Amino acid sequence: MSLHQPPGRQPTAHHVQVSPSPVQAVWREPLPPRNRGRIVMFGGGLVLAGLALLAVFAYLTTFLSSGALLFGMLLALVPLTLVLFAVRWIDRWDPEPRPALLFALLWGAGISIVSALVFDLGVQITIAASAGALAGSDFASAVIQAPIVEEVAKGFGILVLFWAVRRHFEGPVDGVVYAGAIAAGFAFSENIQYFGLALTEGTAQTVGITFLLRGVFSPFAHVTFTICIGLALGLAARRGATKSGAVGYFLFGLVPAIGLHALWNGATFVLAGDASVLGYYVVVQVPLFIAAILVVVFLRRQEARITLRRLHEYSQAGWFTPAEVSMLGTGAGRRQALAWGTGQDRLKKLAMRRFIADATRLAFVRDRLVRGQSAPALQAQEAHLLNLLMQHRAEVLAQTLPGLAATAFQKRRD
User: I want to staple 327 with a disulfide (CB 3.0 to 4.6 A). Which of 180, 294, 388, 408 is the partner?
Assistant: First the structure.
């Protein structure tokens, strides 16, 4: 049997059989068949999000020339690249599936923007149809309408990912990663409009100021807002919330996301002059950004601690050697292992990367089991990952390994 215990009994290290003999039985435990309908739906979602992005580009061409659109897109790539590098750094310990990250990026750049545009169009039609009974307000649009509509649109994308890739949505860091990708996509499309309009309607100085404000001072603004929702849904994943239960967490994270967004937009109406705006950045936005960095660093370290602790429990059961646990569960050990892999052939290098990635996934599955989420699907996933890890080890051990790898991958003898 594997580390998990029968339903109703919380698994602990001293309940584990300290012998590798159960391995074959665990390997034979079937993994639940993939839900092909869900895969098809996810593929359809990627297509829909891509079409939405094309619709955004079509909308931009209605008031931007092709040259201005291209110029805005090239400038918008600068903050987008910066944010995506940050997202990748956050995601290094337990990388999310690339299709899910692509979906998140397209959702932000396409579906979220289209949702905001459609809602704004509805507001404008309502105001026009009121024959003067209703009047639009720039303040209400920027401080009330935009934060609510945009954060709901972006946040719903995180909720969709929670439902669609629940197996890979395991905690707050995953929520931050998906939120960051969605926010980066949204800011990319929004920046194309701002940079393109600055070129069309203003001067070179206008373009410079716009790029300074949006590309240098605030590339992480949307990320700072939307990660509130990502953290809330990550907490829902950590606590084993159901799909319907996650909606409550979504609403909980939506409130501070809207609040921070409204605070950001409202400052432009309250403050006047370059000195006031700069002071706002220093007094309000810089501390918020630093706080977000500290939260992310804390969560990343927590992931590393969980990985090391849970893999140590498997080591006590005979699945890994202590040297392997050190290699798989510490940053220094991983760097040395990956450095070793760079000198090997492609298959061994890939096997090493997969060994590290699947060991991390196993640790988080184990953590969910320890927390009492003893679902049959989780137990089958644990067994499947153990099977994969033994295969990865065998691939790396195809020939004698030098140095650190030889120590870390030595076979356990009873």
Answer: 408
